[in-house]
Design brief:
Order of helices and strands: HEEEHEHEHEEH
Number of strands: 7
Radius of gyration: 26 Å
CATH architecture of the largest domain: 3-Layer(aba) Sandwich
CATH superfamily of the largest domain: Glutaredoxin
Number of domains: 2
CATH topology of the largest domain: Glutaredoxin
CATH class of the largest domain: Alpha Beta
Strand content: 15-25%
Amino acid sequence: MTTRAIPRSRFDLRRLSLRHLVIAAVLPVLLVGVLGTALLVRGTAPTPTAIGGVAPDFVLADLDGNPVRLADLRGQPVIVNFWASWCVPCVEEFPLLRAAADRHAETGLVVVGIVYRDRSEAARDFMARNGATWDAAMDPGERVAQAYGILGPPETFFIGRDGTIVARQLGQFSAASLDENVAAIIGEE
């Protein structure tokens, strides 16, 4: 049986001077501190979709190719719902959204569905099957989703008549939270 010697690494920490070891230990800590501070400072700045901020405007084509522009809806309470036909929570909240749209139609409530990472055919089929009465717009390149900071569907923004974001719902909403947020944007608080 023969044994082979394991070759020594060319780099031996024992040969470094104390000065180099201190720099190697302190530099990562300083970098983490600087980056952490930068993130904290940056994180306190208001985002474009902060509550009370003006909702980012968009112009998208609906499933029939007609333009949907948020600015054209100024003066009306608006629900902007990012959804997909493959999203189970989106499917579950859809009847609640449809009922709210029907119940508050006389107040001028407008719902705009923005299709997120889905095919237009699947979205069109879903809207028809579930009796949607509002526009569903495609977001090619996810430009609007990025402007709104969408993490994944469903996400819903409740926009007041003045164009400001009154509330944001991350994930599926309940009937109670939907009613509360709709009341806030139509002025029934």
